[in-house]
Amino acid sequence: MIVGILFVVFIAAVIWSIYYGRKIIRTEKTDAVFGNPSRALGGWHWVVAGVSSVLILWLWFSWDAARSYFPSAANELCQVAKVNRAVVPMRRAFPFDDNRLLQGTQLLARDGNQINLLRERLDSIGFNESDRSELSDILAEMDSVLAVQADPAIVEDTAVAKFREIAQRIDEVAANMASDDYSGDPDPEAQENAQAQPGWGRSHVEIPPLPETERGRKFDAASVTLEEIAKEFSATKNNGPLLTARLDALKNRIKSFQIDESGDESAVASRKEFVKQVDKIYKRIDDGKIFPQSVIQPVEQALVNLEDVKRDQQGALLWIDAIAMPGGDIQAGNNACSEQGSGRWLPKPSDTLRTFARMADPDVGYKGFPLLWYKMKPIAEMVGFLVPDWIADLIPGEYPRHANDGSISTNFKTKVYNFATGNFSSPSLP
């Protein structure tokens, strides 16, 4: 909370400095000249404004202020990031985020263009007339097989039903997320483990991954279900019997094609490289990733609905992420969440001070080497070093001597001498 208080103090300092500076300008005659030390005095308030502005930006863009004011925000955004990560395999098939086209549209354009390029190169490769005719027929069949994948008539009913089922399950997850009791009562053991994990930035794991709040548990539960749905979506292929038969026939034609190895080595190498490119494009066509847009449209609509519900359930978390945590976001990995953007590469002031304080301990240091070295020394030793011994000689009287019974009496002269030599009890300082 100290960081939060300092953040407000720095903002107040900037406002006060501007107010004070404008007041000076209105009420006093100024002849300060920038760059002339003798005529640039009295502007200390602008120094305060500049230093405070830099510290405000540092605390803001490093997310240190956000961590102070919203300590649970990172954990909740981590659970939201889990949902985002779970639906990535499905979202990349549609014009979401940075995509502008359906995945099937992109594949049709990419592979169709590659086939056209091979068709243009065919005449320049040293094939005989028979081989050139065969390869031309193979390329034409590849182009036809590629295009036919966008035809709803060849898609298996099981694939169509699967996409409808996936869309329905996504809608169910969205409806559950909108419900207040979706995650149910928290498991006591899971809640204990969540509360026991280190706080935000307190360990090598930047953000604690286990959900700590009710909102976080809701997104975490949704991410588990969505991850399973995404796996089924990715496993669904456009491999109906009609399409499979044509692909198998095309594969056999490519496999049975015999490369003419007559002529010089460069000509043979060009033929082999061309046939290799044909086989490579065939394997792309055989991926089964292209579907008619009408078949996968229910999934696209379900994902749009899920995104709307997700944003609605985040509530104020959206504003916290946009305003208090600028310059990046939180992303989920396999086992943890991490800060991305300025929150990651810009060190937090409080963490920096904490790290240096820990390294200042001579027993810790940096990689076994002390950053600072100090030793506790009695104040008496410092006094003995600074005060000359002859001060005691100025005191009237004689120094005491021991008696026959071994006793030693002390007087004021002895006490002054003990003080001057540091021979007295005192606390220690580093």
Describe what this molecule looks like in 3D.
With 430 residues, this protein is mainly α. 62% of the residues lie in helices and 3% in strands. The protein has a two-stranded antiparallel sheet. Strands 3-4 form a two-stranded antiparallel ribbon. It is elongated, with a radius of gyration of 38 Å. The two termini are 29 Å apart.
What's the SSE pattern?
Answer: HHHHHHHHHHHHHEEHHEHHHE
Strand content bin? under 5%
Give the structural class.
mainly alpha
- Let me know the number of strands: 4
- Kindly report how far apart the N and C termini lie: 29 Å
Largest sheet: spatial strand order: 1-2
What is the count of DSSP helices, taking H or I runs of 4+ residues?
18
Considering DSSP H and I runs of 4 or more, what fraction of the residues is helical? Answer: 55-70%
Shape: elongated
Radius of gyration: 38 Å
**Regions with little confidence, pLDDT below 50 for 5+ residues:** none
Described by strand count, sense and barrel closure, the largest sheet is: 2 strands, antiparallel
Mean pLDDT: 87
